[in-house]
Amino acid sequence: MSKQQWADTEVWGAIAQERERQRDELELIASENYASMAVMAATGSVLTNKYAEGLPRKRYYGGCQHVDVIENIARKRARDLFMPPDFDIGVNVQPHSGAQANAAVFLALLNGGHPTEDGHTGDAILGLDLSNGGHLTHGSSVNSSGRLYHGAHYRLRDDGYIDMNHVREMARSHKPKLLICGASAYPRIIDFAAFREIADEVGAYLLADIAHIAGLVVSGHHPNPFPHCHVVTTTTHKTLRGPRGGLIMGQRNLMKKLNSAVFPGTQGGPLMHVIAAKAIAFGEAQQPSFHTYCGQVISNAKAMAQTLMEEGLSLVSGGTDNHLMLIDLSDSDVSGKDGEIALGKAGITVNKNTVPNERRSPFVTSGIRVGTPAITTRGMKEEECRWIARKIAQVLRTPKDEALLQTICDEVHDLCGNFPIYPEL
Length: 425
Ligand SMILES: Cc1ncc(COP(=O)(O)O)c(C=O)c1O
Description:
The protein is α/β, with parallel strands linked by helices and 425 residues long. Helix content is 42%, strand content 14%. The chain folds into 2 domains: 46-285, Type I PLP-dependent aspartate aminotransferase-like (Major domain) (Aspartate Aminotransferase, domain 2, 3-Layer(aba) Sandwich); 288-417, Alpha-Beta Complex (Aspartate Aminotransferase, domain 1), CATH 3.90.1150. The strands form 5 sheets. The protein has a 7-stranded mixed sheet with strand order 4-12-11-10-9-7-8, with helices on both faces. The radius of gyration is 22 Å and the shape is globular. The mean pLDDT is 96.
């Protein structure tokens, strides 16, 4: 490659700045993590040049002998990671993202139809309400899942937990063809067996979208959705710590439909460089060190949650069982948006989030979502998490105190300096 090709200073300059931001600031966005050097190297490899529509040994392009090996390794490792004893599952590693994985599952299992004046012509899906921690792809009206299908939603109980009696009532009244469990902002354990009972009662397929908790599932820190669920989707870049991407796993008898819903149903050529990176990440997740990492993610989240509450902040459901927590600012003059901006100035990156019974707009919100996967990857433990929680509380008490924000920002830089992410960073 000639020097000239590296001379795009506009883009490489911004990449260098982003590298510094990641190095110097605290990343508490619950859906983000730091992939390994090996994972990043695979995404930047020659595999980005290769077309490979189809599945291994059944491709629509020549020259696929090496990418076939890679995709088969990825499939085998994913199966070994997620498959419980005595239960056979099929795997598709090609979805470009979590949203793509969900779209393919809907295409495979549901009949779509446009909303009409008389109602909805598409099959019904029932998932957790977006403002209660669900995801856009679980039937929200602004997403294809809510435009092609009839999206119905269950909500959290006032104590912040999923209420299975309410889920059952909603299932009985909406008769969904697909029941979805899984969330983007739910800090508690999901009872897959209880969801399956309800799915069976109304004759629905059960989909678990474990995009957030996949790492905790494969390391045994959260119950496995199999054998309870018919289909499981996930992203590969959150607690699983791989490249950005999606994954579908399902009962064997559904795999033919699921595979063809990915290609040619919703995607063209698979991203073989990302599939290689997924294979590497799955290999990393099979190591004992990944089990230790996920245990630490949860211990860190619990330490942070405890300290936030000791500092007088309220958390949805009163704590956490997993990698994230939701600070509830419903009773505060400081909104989620104010908090996100002030914490950003202090070098702490979080995202505003709606909370149950939200009274502010989705652009403002009354919540802040905080997660520990990324800071745990860089080696932080309970002590650092308690320190960070005290700083968050200080910022949320006085978000307009610019001098304080600057002081905390300097302290955050010092802390981050002791926990490098990548060798050269
Ligand atoms: C539960 C859940 N499902 C699906 C997705 C979508 O994943 P992606 O951003 O890779 O499309 C997310 C992402 O935040 C998520 O939290």
